[in-house]
Amino acid sequence: MRILVTGGAGYIGSHVVKALGEQGHDLLIYDNLSTGHDWAVLYGRLEVGELADTRRLDEVLQAFRPEAVLHFAASIQVEESVREPLRYYRNNVANSLNLLDAMERHDVRNLIYSSTAAVYGIPERMPVDESLPLNPINPYGASKVMMETVLRDIADARENFRYIALRYFNVAGADAGNRIGQAYADATHLITRALKTANGQYPKLSVFGTDYPTPDGTCIRDYIHVDDLADAHIRALNYLVETGKTEIMNCGYGHGFSVREVVDVAKKVTRIDFPVEETERRAGDPPELIADSSKLRRLTGWLPRHDDLEFIIRTAWDWELKYRSLLKGKV
Ligand code: UFG
After folding, report:
1. Could you give the CA distance from residue 165 to residue 246 in angstroms, rounded to a whole number?
2. Which of 105, 123, 198, 247 has the fewest C-beta atoms lying within 10 Å of its C-beta?
3. CA atoms within 13 A of residue 47's CA, in its CB half-sphere
4. Is 268 in contact with 261 (CB distance < 8 Å)?
5. CA–CA separation, 131 vs 141, rounded Å?
6. Is 118 close to ligand 1, i.e. is its CB under 6 Å away?
7. Torsion angle of alpha carbons 188, 192, 196, 201, nearest 10°?
8. Is the pLDDT of residue 308 over 50?
9. What is the per-residue pLDDT for 162?
10. Which residues pair with 32 in a beta bridge?
């Protein structure tokens, strides 16, 4: 298939591009390289451009004539979204509308949309299935809910438009071949932050809150390896094209680990006893987030291959070491 991938030079997008490329698809990656990197695009052709640039989008769709779009390009940091909501609504909503407009003009009918567990806010029960109410508690989550609403309404209005929204839980790890991974100079996510602390980039790792109603008092998350998530995209796309059915699916393993457990495994993998301090809770963190992914499994046949926290952290660590030497080489 001819597939347009927005944000395909970023962390998750680049892993999905790798998986699609391995299957022989014809790929065009549209990315502004704000957080992505040209070297992360292992397959297809990279077109550097903005989703705000509607004329450019038109030219790209006109020339490439994609059969499907995978839309990863978005701003993704919860804390930043609280400080700079407008940036989130502009990038995640307004720019997505530009893309959808262009898709309509060029009659592109299939979309895989990147959504998030943040749409649920603090869920009322665990594990979280797709029928739970959407109660986002920050502008990032709200921007994704808005787009899910827009997509639902377009699919209702346009008979030939269909999409799958994938709600990601905590995505982590890196390409087992160590070619790509999370490549941000700074890190806010737990696993990357822990590994950058082990690497000496930060003096210590803060554990945000030890008084949650969980067995060890720290928050529990469902960490999914990025290659398993990439496979979920391939299967979702096949399902969409084969059935023509719009769906929303959670992506996670269905069980989780506490912050303390993640820290212990990070120390074991790195063999570095990095400093850890216990601090106050971080605003807006739900105590527990576990995906019920039975829908994804049932409809697409998805089966995790890397449901192993040690493997996830090991691939992230191998990548972190390589990325750090890449960065050093550039300075
Ligand atoms: N944490 C720490 N110390 C750190 C970083 C994180 O203790 O330095 C804790 C957090 O408080 C949280 C857990 O580790 O309890 C996981 O935090 P992350 O920042 O790694 O991930 P989140 O669960 O906050 O974020 C994920 C996705 C978001 C999504 C959100 C939904 O990355 O895109 O889940 O709640 F919005």
Report:
1. 8
2. 105
3. 19
4. no
5. 16
6. yes
7. -20
8. yes
9. 98
10. none
Structural domain for 216, as ranges: 190-221+254-289+306-330
Q: Reply yes or no on whether 88 is catalytic.
A: no
Total number of domains in the chain: 2
Q: Is residue 295 part of a domain?
A: no
Do 232 and 108 lie in one domain? The reply is: yes
Same domain, 119 and 196: no
Q: Whose CA is nearest to atom 28 of ligand 1?
A: 118
Q: Helix or strand or coil: residue 252? A: coil
- Cα of 170 vs centre of ligand 1, distance in Å, is 8
- State the pLDDT confidence band at 330, using cuts at 50, 70 and 90: low
Same domain? 9 vs 128: yes
Cβ–ligand 1 distance for 207 under 6 Å, the answer: yes
Taking the centre of ligand 1 as the mean of its atom positions, its distance from the CA of residue 138, in whole angstroms, is 13
Q: What is d(CA 69, CA 71) in angstroms, rounded to the nearest whole number?
A: 6
Mean pLDDT across 102-108: 98
Q: Which residue has the tokens 């030890």?
A: 210
Q: What is the CATH number of the domain that holds 211?
A: 3.90.25.10
* ipTM (interface predicted TM): 0.96
Question: Mind listing the pLDDT tens digit for each residue in 15-61?
Answer: 999 999 999 999 999 999 999 999 999 999 999 999 999 999 999 99
